[in-house]
């Protein structure tokens, strides 16, 4: 008689509450890795445990994304005096004065390396 770490009853309970094999691993307290995933998948098949409700590739099928930004987060009114500038705009408007003072000169003083011809 073979001895298994997870009994068919424990696996069936975890599989019934899970959406995929990774959820089964998490419910069992197993570290999510390829080897553990393959082992538990084989055990589920060996014991004939129903996995027809698993979502396969569409991980969030029928559910909203967990990290999705809510409308309440998007519609925040900034306090007076706060300025919001997206990163793309920061890059095109130049360096802030504190950083520009630390930047080296654009042109070498001893040679013409780095200079660009005028058009």
Number of helices: 6
Task: State the major sheet.
Answer: none
Mean pLDDT: 76
Distance between the termini: 86 Å
β content, as a range? under 5%
What is the overall silhouette? elongated
- The helix content, as a percent range, equals 25-40%
Q: For this entry, what is the oligomeric state of its chains? A: single chain
- Radius of gyration using CA atoms only: 29 Å
Number of E-state strands: 0
**What are the secondary-structure elements, in order, as H or E?**
HHHHHH
Write the layout of secondary structure elements.
Blueprint: H1 8-17, H2 21-28, H3 34-47, H4 71-74, H5 87-92, H6 97-100
Helix pairs in contact: 1-2, 2-3
Task: Describe the overall structure.
- The chain has 119 residues and is mostly helical.
- It has a domain at 8-47.
- It is 39% helix and 0% strand.
- It is built from 6 helices and no strands.
- Helix 1 (8-17) packs across helix 2 (21-28) and helix 2 crosses helix 3.
- The protein is elongated.
- The N and C termini lie far apart (86 Å).
- The mean pLDDT is 76.
Supply database-style keywords.
elongated; 39% helix; mainly alpha; 119 residues
Summed up:
By secondary structure, this protein is mainly α. The protein has six helices and no strands.
